[in-house]
Input
Amino acid sequence: MNKGERKIALAVEYDGSCFHGWQRQANALSVQETLEAAWEELTGEKKAIIGCSRTDKGVSARCHISHLFTSTPIPDENIFLALNTKLPNGISVLSSRAVAPDFHARYQACGKTYSYRLLCSQSRPAIDRRTTAWLPQDLDYQAMRESCLHFLGERDFSALMDQGSATRRSKRRIYNIELQKQILGELSGTEYLLEITGDGFLYHMVRIIMGTLVEAGQAKIDPSMIPDLLRAGDRTKMGMTMPPEGLILEKVYFQEELFGNDTWPY
Output
């Protein structure tokens, strides 16, 4: 941090269909690049904005946390309002605040909650297509709920990680996982909503968990076999990687409250 600078945390919501993921890329528009360009236009400062998570292309976020150093005279609590005047419709800064110089959005995050929304109907969704995956068939809800229980706790989740991950730590802990079913009507079909909270997630992990639940609901995977499949660590034995559209980063937790109701509860 340079003299006269302070560190600011941002809470950001974005529509993943507008971007090729969070992280800056050479030949595709990212959330990070969009924020940094808007910041430079607003303040004249060329700054790196560091995010809590690298969401993939098509994945949305309800509250993604990031931070940057700045010497702008804009009051901390008004930064989000000013920055939003420079941002496109697919992204919005919800709040801004000053944080300690040693705060780090990624390394100090204690855990995250994701949701995954799936519509089972004869016709694909139109209005909700950006935040909902679709299957043209219904599923066995009880088999899916039974399968959920096998993902709880701490274990090696290598079987739920696609190739391309840079992480060397495949052990994670899932604290809560819930699957809800809602019958929307004869024309609209049935909606399944997965919510999952953990201390961290591997590459495509939530999308693979949902894919495994789907295949259990299709009687392709026996729920009772999931513990053995996890122990085997073989990605090819688990479910498909579901499309990114259904996945939303809902909340990021920290040891101390940052933007309200985000203190790590475990």
